Amino acid sequence: MAGVVENRQVVLKEYIDGIPKESDMEMKSEKVALKAPKGSGAFLVKNLYLSCDPYMRGRMRNFHASYIPPFVPGQPIEGFGVAKVVDSDNPDFKPGDYISGLTGWEDYTLIYNNTSLSQLRKIQPDDCIPLSYHVGLLGMPGFTAYVGLYEICSPKKGEYVFVSAASGAVGQLVGQLAKLHGCYVVGSSGSSQKVDLLKNHFGFDDAFNYKEEADLDAALKRYFPQGIDVYFDNVGGDMLDAALLNMRVHGQIAVCGMVSLHSFSDPKGIHNLHSLIPKRIKMQGFLQSDYLNKFPEFLEHVSERYKQQNIVYIEDMNEGLETAPAAFVGLFSGRNIGKQVICVARD
Amino acid sequence: MAGVVENRQVVLKEYIDGIPKESDMEMKSEKVALKAPKGSGAFLVKNLYLSCDPYMRGRMRNFHASYIPPFVPGQPIEGFGVAKVVDSDNPDFKPGDYISGLTGWEDYTLIYNNTSLSQLRKIQPDDCIPLSYHVGLLGMPGFTAYVGLYEICSPKKGEYVFVSAASGAVGQLVGQLAKLHGCYVVGSSGSSQKVDLLKNHFGFDDAFNYKEEADLDAALKRYFPQGIDVYFDNVGGDMLDAALLNMRVHGQIAVCGMVSLHSFSDPKGIHNLHSLIPKRIKMQGFLQSDYLNKFPEFLEHVSERYKQQNIVYIEDMNEGLETAPAAFVGLFSGRNIGKQVICVARD
């Protein structure tokens, strides 16, 4: 039959609780017709770029009470991606359109666009902006940086901002936005190469390798002798504990991610929450998806600054769908340098 | 010499880190002239009621970087009290005036009123309101309840409110204000007598004795099958950990106190902060002293409702300055029933 092709898929084998391993996923393959069924309202896309994001780990748990359901074992992993419409039964998406949003870890995905969680939108190709940036700088991670910095915190010019996992998909933009805002910005990351990027490529005021610091409290006291006004927390754990001791009065903590979490069922304790009271600290968890009405404003703000070369962005691009499990797992040991993307196909 | 009297004092012996013990304090006595020195701007008061508040423990540490300095070992403990002016070199305070604010744990105190932290104000005696309420319902603890509920959280009618240490100086008012606001309110406390008070005297919708619950998470799931919108946290520790698992989306936690904290230098861990992100929880520490511009509004709001018998208040009144150390220490085991006050003298 014409238009039937092989569709490789990365599937979750079974639910997990701890840190993801490559063996938690496997490759499968099945035939797929390059057709969107009539009357389905769906459209079929060819996936180009897939995003590896730490939050996806939460969907690998057998936990159904969260804002988003868990993955279905045996089915392709879901994640944000950039894709090209191949066939469509949806008048809003036409063959040839580029889209970003929730898709599958596979070559081709039939998308029903039936939930706001999927954050589907058409991309206007732009010669100045790589398509893949729509899962990074201009996608969910970039918007997370924007929302966390401006909606959850309210940094003032001259304030002291600390970002953990600072060279990651979210952190690199947090730091650059805070710098453009007139803040003093220090980032932490896990290698000397990343520290170098933070200082010399992303323009952070300073940066350090947390793996070289035996005492994180002492490290933060060295980098922030005046204390921290805004902590953009991507990691949780020991760094959060140390930051709590170094916050300034009325400090703000945007709780964005806890990539250091070893286990949901037996999480490590945070010991310094008593600091919240005398320092009147606000600590707030957030999801970018609550602020989608701000997305157009974000897109314009960041695209413009990117084109003016006031913002840079680094991707860690893996080639081939089959590299996805290792790339995803690498997020939790910090193997990636910059935003982790999988290139499944180039247009 | 005329006007020289014995002045008994409760002094801190030395700095501590763990839970206060009676032996950390001792009684002393010295002579005092019942005079405010000319040119000092000070006034001399006779202390009537002294307040035992858990926050005072923080001033027993050798830690100088907080919002308020530590106590001075060998000097009388400082705390909120109600007192009567005996002699004055300050035109704003005249002999015979009743005041509330920061005073000493002693019979007589010379007050310099040189810091906003002392929260000194004149009290208009009112036949309908016991003087001692100015260190409880109408003083710092009451104002803490008001600020935490209305300024830190923003409860809506019909929302689910949980209060820990609910029969304490702060908790009893939090619950009653939340009820008047149209919320569903459950409190936790540490004895069946207190649970009875919460349900039958303070009008909480429900209450439980945390000491009888082997699994606090399960207890909260039983009392809040729909989850918690607002948690007014007076205790920290295991109850905070369990509450984190039971918050609703966009829940708010006012972090008011951590009376369960066993040690500042080796605090127990909180394990469920990862809940902050998917549930978008805001957790905020606060001090009532940041909101003093709201004090007149609070005083009017609560006095009025008290006089209309829409609010009740329970004090645990100890007689005699010498009972202060045991009464203070009792706060940390929940020995007190209601607001702990020491009566030093009755007018």
UniProtKB/TrEMBL annotation, chains A, B:
Transmembrane segments: none
GO MF: oxidoreductase activity, acting on the CH-CH group of donors, NAD or NADP as acceptor
Keywords: Oxidoreductase
InterPro entries: ADH-like_C (IPR013149), ADH_N_2 (IPR041694), ER (IPR020843), GroES-like_sf (IPR011032), MDR_fam (IPR045010), NAD(P)-bd_dom_sf (IPR036291)
Residue ranges that the Swiss-Prot or TrEMBL entry lists as coiled coil: none
Domain Enoyl reductase (ER): from-to ranges: 58-342
Plastid as UniProt keyword: no
Protein name listed in UniProt: Alcohol dehydrogenase superfamily, zinc-type
Natural source organism: Corchorus olitorius
